[in-house]
Amino acid sequence: MTDSVRLPVPSTYGTTLREHVLAQMQAAPGATGQYTSLLNHVSLAVRLITSRVRSAGLANMLGYTGETNIQGEEVQKLDAYANDVLVNVFERSGHCCAVGSEEMDEALFMEKSGKYVVLFDPLDGSSNIDANVSIGTIFSIFRRRAGELVPSVDDLLQPGKNIVAAGYAVYGPSTVLVLASGGSVDAFTLDPSIGEFFLSSPNIRCPAMGANYSVNEGNFSRWAPGVQKWNHWIKSENKEERRPYGHRYVGSLVADAHRTLLKGGIFAYPADTKSKKGKLRLLYEAAPLAYILEHAGGAAIDGERRILDIMPSELHQRTPLVLGSKDDVEAFARFAREG
Fold it and tell me: How far is CA 234 from the centre of its chain?
């Protein structure tokens, strides 16, 4: 009789996302389990989107739907699919009273008794889909405002400092879910063979200073003088100040932000003469990424102000965004102030 094959059990890989979230709940006084359930629904959505992204070229999911979203951008087929998945998952959770999405003109209201609201970019970097470049999902979770019997758009229009959890998924060589919750930033990698996320990078810390900068230099001529001076400075040679920095730019926000979080340095999408208010969306791109970077020891500003302090006035509000290592972000702010 031959020996049976010994297959690794989940504990071989370490802590699962479910175990991690449950441990946080047990450590929180008065926790009801709704927040934990909501995060588990986030995990479900990411796994569903991963499956479709991995087979997009075979399932006729590449290309455009023929529709245009509120941003004036053509909607990719995968954009629409990811948005539908997230909306359905949060609606089924029963814990969410409203959601806001890049792909929807207005907020969508759900369970009136739900304690949370969620804002998300269902598929960031979707213009890169056909080129097989890393893309991702970005989200933030807020508690609804106290005292309101019926959810309203005001529940969604909160400053980033009110976020209770934020995260993003990167659909790259592997699917990685980065979650800022309970005071730490942790990364979980999906094992596709069993459909489970395992803790792969606990307590991520962004270095105080990096060696790379990430910016679209094609916009140089439209930048303010201070930003142009910063760009010249970061590329100029100074061995004592560890310059020049290397240039790394994917053009997929979630991929560039993920690299900056792990390796340090700076990502910048400043305002310019074409996009005077900035191009990135405050509520479902800038704020969640700022929350993650700050909880990992980094910083995030709009060029001057802390992103998490900005009070939004509309759902699809845009903003400049500069994030990364504290020292590198402060250097950018100094040039922006001096002009």
Answer: 26
Same domain, 232 and 167: no
Would you say the C-alpha torsion 294, 298, 302, 306 has a positive or negative sign? Answer: positive
Q: Which two tokens stand for residue 295?
A: 């909880």
The terminus-to-terminus CA distance of the chain in angstroms comes to 79
**Residues 141/164, Cβ–Cβ less than 8 Å:** yes
266, 313, 337, 318: which is closest to 158 by C-alpha? Answer: 313
The tens digit of pLDDT for each residue in 126-174 reads: 878 778 889 999 999 999 987 667 899 999 999 999 999 999 999 999 9
Same domain, 226 and 115: no
Task: Give the pLDDT confidence of 55-78 residue by residue, as tens digits.
Answer: 766 555 566 665 666 676 666 788
Contact 68, 80 (CB under 8 A): no
Are residue 188 and residue 217 in the same domain, yes or no?
Answer: no
- For residue 126, give the DSSP letter: G
Q: Which domain holds residue 270?
A: 212-338
Q: Which residues pair with 140 in a beta bridge?
A: 119, 166
280-281 and 246-247 beta bridge pairing? unpaired
Burial of 221 (C-beta count, 10 Å sphere; 0-12/13-18/19+): exposed
Close Cβ partners of 47 (under 8 Å, ≥ 6 residues apart) = 175, 190, 195
Q: How confident is the model at residue 320 (pLDDT cuts 50, 70, 90)?
A: very high
Asked whether residue 141 falls in the same domain as residue 232, the answer is: no
Q: Are residues 137 and 277 in the same domain?
A: no
d(CA 54, CA 193): 14
Query: How does pLDDT run across 253-298, given as a tens digit for each residue?
Result: 999 999 999 999 999 999 999 999 999 999 999 999 999 999 999 9
CA distance 290 to 253: 12
